[in-house]
Amino acid sequence: MNDASKILDQLNDRSREVFRRVVESYLVNGDPVGSRTLTRDFSEKVSAATIRNVMQDLEYMGLLGSPHISAGRIPTQDGLRMFVDGLLEVSDVELTDRRMIDATVTSNSQDVGGILDRIGSALSGVTRGASLVLAPKHEAPIKHIEFVSLAQDRALVVLVFSDGHVENRIFTPPPGQTPSSMREAANFLNALIEGRTLSDVQRVIASEIDKRRQEIDSLSQALVESGLAVWQGEGDTYERLIVRGRANLLDSGAEDEDLDRIRILFDDLERKRDIAEFLELAEDGEGVRIFIGSENKLFSLSGSSLVVSPYMNADRKIIGAVGVIGPTRLNYGRIVPIVDYTAQLVGKLISDRS
Fold first, then answer.
1. Which residues form a coiled coil (predicted)?
2. Which tens digit of pLDDT belongs to each residue from 182-215?
3. How far from the centroid of its chain's Cα atoms is residue 66's Cα?
4. What are the beta bridge partners of residue 73?
5. pTM over 0.90
6. What is the DSSP string of 229-265?
7. What angle do CA 82, 83, 84 make, to 5 degrees?
8. Residue 76 and residue 255: Cα distance in Å, rounded?
9. How many domains does the chain have?
């Protein structure tokens, strides 16, 4: 039994109904809820004074808070967590939402990156939040690698995979590179890589350079190392993160304090490395996970929530994640099934194309 279940067991039916109605009203309207509002359609005939006493008890338990002395109550972070874990009623994905997400994968395009980008845009449009898609790494065996000089301070590294997939990325090569040193570096790598995935190559490249130092001069060695670092660093993991719909988090009616929190969130979103590392924590288990406020240290200052779900390939291996960021006042009952549905859709898309 989790903590939410234990606390819920301590509440009688009246307290549980008061708590549920406060949270549901807050998630819809964003406003503090007063006792008189609750008495209008309460399941039993009770006075506003009785409701106030119940709300005070819930506040004492740390489940509700009062933003102003004379205002109604809103759920605390602990209260939201208990609601999500113990009282949340998840609806089915609405037909219009499902059609909007499905429409992104109806094209015959084989560009998985482009499709994932469209899925991210659709997800942000449907949820009115910021969407995150952590795209899978390409793990097919490598067929060929090539370095192409573009300028003194720019070079292109091209990877051709055995399944026909091609990746290329511009990087800054070490000073002093020549066409011949680039050919040497490519020849050195091509002698090693055939039949190996990029992850395999990254594991053996350092030791092979040490063993075959006579076959590759220091200039070519530096080029090999810096070229592969494009995939070892941000090109490998962190640029696989697609962020869409950040403007959705800006509300024309937001107060200055809310706008400050949103600006902080925008700064967080720019740190793709941090977000990718955090989303990969969600790859540890199946199903949708919800992180509220300070439970997610990345967004704790902005007071935001993250609803995230991993997705799997045909071998049931978790290879990425999709998620939605928004204020803690999210419509969790609607967002959770949308994220879950999108994760399953992406998993099927990846499996069908593998």
1. none
2. 888 888 888 887 777 776 776 777 777 777 766 6
3. 31
4. 33
5. no
6. HHHHTTTTTGGGEEEE-GGGG--TT--HHHHHHHHHH
7. 90
8. 20
9. 3
